[in-house]
Amino acid sequence: MRVGALKVKERLRLNSLKILQFDSTDNRRIQVYGRFLWYSFRNYRVNIGGKNYGRIKQAHIASDEYCSLANTVGWSTTFEFPQSAVDEDHQLCQEYGHDFTLMCKIKQSMLAANRLSVERVKGIFGDQSDKVQGMAQRDFLLLLDFAENGITPIIGYDFVPEATNIPPLRARYEKVVHTVNSLLFVQFKNGTMLIMKTAKAQTIPGVHFSPQHHAESKEKPEGRVIGDLSGQHDPTYTPLNGTANSKDALRTLISDTCGEIKHPTIMQLVHMVLSAADTHGWDALILWKKDLKGAFNLLNYNLLLQTRRPKVLCL
After folding, report:
1. What are the tens digits of pLDDT across the range 268-313?
2. Whose CB has fewer CB within 10 Å in the chain, the N or C terminal residue?
3. What single-letter DSSP state applies at residue 314?
4. Whether the Cβ atoms of residue 238 and residue 230 lie closer than 8 Å to each other
5. How far apart are CA 240 and CA 238, in angstroms?
């Protein structure tokens, strides 16, 4: 318990640290960078002064704020799922003969234009992964499987789907229930989730329940919606991320199946920049950073987990 308390205390201390401080040094940097922008993009009339300078300063200040649980609680205090949303998915369920898997596939098909597909994978890497130098055949085949079938979560040897002994709601979720539900409703409107009453969901063959959770996020008072796939409220309950007995074996199985994730080191990134400069010249080099918004929602999931038991469907 003491170790856990110390970890929580240290996390709170780190969260309170100022990441950016706007001072005279920042002013000078913006001025220098502004002159570079003006010279590089002078045909586009880039103006770093006046309002634009004020906006940059406000961005520095905003990124210096850490959004806490109190911010999340205040972000939404009244939201409830509209009955029309529940009725919409209930009607869809009846329309497709209460076949939950079919319902999800229909929803996924409506999003096909904005999803990973076999055509897109082959268009980028070639029919035999020959368009991109260094593309491992194993990774190429894995991408094709993701595109064709969706991602199939790998589960532990002792996993048993649970539709009766449902995990209790997390205390954090209950504190920020209106905010979390409003964020989930956005996903519903985007077509990436279904809304069903618990009693109805429990009738789905092979269904497994995991508790809803929430995490704080820098610069986002509403925070992030996450699922708790590791919590074990009862010794007989097996979480998707494995139990104490199966977790290590599960990690090994995932690495053996999908490959180990290795993040590039700072030296690798520097070498990439230098290599690009050697090829194209420094004057032609522009560095961009782009995140995929809602990246996890851009991938389909294979709804049925093939195990030694009957197929499992996870919520």
Report:
1. 888 888 888 888 888 888 877 777 777 777 888 886 654 434 344 4
2. N
3. E
4. no
5. 7
Which structure tokens are listed for 111?
């999003």
- 273 alpha carbon, distance to own chain's centre: 27
At residue 149, does pLDDT exceed 70?
A: yes
Instruction: Give 126's contacts (C-beta < 8 A, 6+ positions apart).
Output: 132
**Which three-class secondary structure state does DSSP give residue 194?**
coil
Q: Are 269 and 164 within 8 A, CB to CB?
A: no
Q: How many helices (H) and strands (E) does the chain have?
A: 13, 5
Q: Say which residue the tokens 């529940």 belong to.
A: 86
Instruction: Name beta bridge partners: 212.
Output: 227
Place 56 in a pLDDT band, splitting at 50, 70 and 90: low
Asked if residues 64 and 20 have their Cβ atoms less than 8 Å apart, the reply is yes
Contact 63, 219 (CB under 8 A): yes
Task: Report the candidate in 188, 147, 195, 156 with the shortest Cα–Cα distance to residue 302.
Answer: 147
CA neighbours closer than 13 Å in the CB half-sphere of residue 56: 15
Specify the range with the lowest mean pLDDT, choosing from 19-33, 197-211, 241-255. 19-33
pLDDT of residue 51: 65
| Range with the poorest average pLDDT among 50-54, 69-73, 195-199, 208-212 | 50-54
207-208 and 312-314 beta bridge pairing: parallel
Asked whether 170 and 200 are in contact (CB, 8 A), the reply is no
The rounded distance, in Å, linking the Cα atoms of 109 and 25 is: 52
pLDDT at 20: 55
What is the edge-to-edge ordering of all strands in the sheet holding 312-314? 207-208, 312-314, 304-305
Give, rounded to a whole angstrom, the gap between the first and last alpha carbons of the chain. Answer: 31
Place of tokens 């994730």: 261
Picking from 124, 203, 116, the residue whose alpha carbon sits closest to that of residue 164 is 203
Per-residue pLDDT band at 184 (split at 50, 70, 90):
very high
